[in-house]
Specification:
- By secondary structure, the chain is mainly β.
- About 0% of the residues lie in helices and about 45% in strands.
- It has a 4-stranded antiparallel β-sheet, with no helix packed on it.
- A hairpin with a 2-residue loop joins β17 and β18.
C-alpha cells in the first residue's frame, strides 16, 4: 500500500526452482538477468553461480570457493554480482573477477578501494555510495564515480542521508547517541544506471534524480 498514488505492477510468477542440475538450491544471495533473458543465481551455500534460460531450465554453473583463477574467496562479499551486457562481474575480498555471460573466467583485477560498487556503468567504471549511511552523521552523503584500474574517483552528486536513524540513551550518567541501521529497513539511497545516465533517490521519498555522466 504506497503512501502516494495507486500502483499495480501486474506481477506474475514465471517459474520456480528448487534444484540446479544435481544441486539443491541452498542460500540465494543475488539474482541477475542478461538481455537475452538468462537468469544468474549466486548460491553462497553451494559456493556456485547458476545459469538458467528464460524458461527456468538449468544451463550450467561456474565459480567455486578458493583463491585461484575463477574462484571466489568470500561468497558473502561475492553477493555483489553485476550482470553487464558482455560480462558478469563479481566483487571479492581483494579483487574483482570477470566472467563471460556463459560463465567462463576471463580475468581478475586487484581491488582494495574503500569505495564499494553499487552499480557498474562500464566494465571499468562504477558508481559507489556509502554502505552504512548512518555513519555519515550530519554530513552530506557523496555519490562517487570510480575507475577500477586507473584508480580515479569523482564526486558527481551529494544527497541528504536519513536523519532519524539515531537514538539517545543514558550510560553511566552520560547521554550517548547510538546510530541504528537495519539493512533493507532503514531508509537508504537507491542508485542505478542505464547507459551513461545514473538515477538515484532516497527510498523514503518520492523523488528521483538523474545525472548524465557525459556532462561530468
Amino acid at each position: 500500500n504506497p503512501l502516494k498514488g495507486n500502483w499495480d505492477f501486474q506481477m506474475k510468477k514465471n517459474w520456480e526452482i528448487q534444484e540446479a542440475g544435481d544441486d539443491i538450491i541452498g542460500a540465494v544471495q543475488n539474482i541477475g538477468s542478461a538481455r537475452d533473458g538468462r537468469v544468474y543465481i549466486l548460491d553462497s551455500k553451494n559456493y556456485k553461480f547458476y545459469i538458467f534460460n528464460p524458461e527456468g531450465q538449468f544451463i550450467s554453473s561456474f565459480g567455486s570457493l578458493g583463491e585461484g583463477p575463477g574462484e571466489i574467496k568470500n561468497f558473502e562479499m561475492g553477493r555483489q554480482m553485476f550482470v553487464l551486457a558482455q560480462n558478469i562481474i563479481v566483487i571479492d575480498r581483494s579483487r574483482i573477477s570477470y566472467f563471460s555471460l556463459d560463465g567462463k573466467f576471463e580475468k581478475s583485477i586487484p581491488f582494495s578501494s574503500r569505495f564499494r560498487p553499487s552499480t557498474f556503468v562500464t566494465e571499468d567504471t562504477f558508481i559507489s555510495i556509502p554502505v552504512r549511511q548512518g555513519a555519515l552523521k550530519d554530513k552530506m552523503g557523496e555519490i562517487k564515480w570510480c575507475h577500477v584500474t586507473e584508480k580515479w574517483e569523482k564526486t558527481i552528486a551529494h544527497y541528504q542521508p536519513f536523519k532519524k536513524d539515531a537514538a539517545t540513551e543514558r550510560n553511566s550518567g552520560r547521554t550517548v547517541t547510538v546510530r541504528v541501521v537495519f539493512g533493507g529497513i532503514t531508509p537508504a539511497l537507491i542508485v542505478g544506471n542505464r547507459g551513461n545516465k545514473v538515477y538515484y533517490g532516497m527510498c523514503d521519498s518520492y523523488s528521483l534524480n538523474c545525472i548524465d555522466l557525459k556532462k561530468m
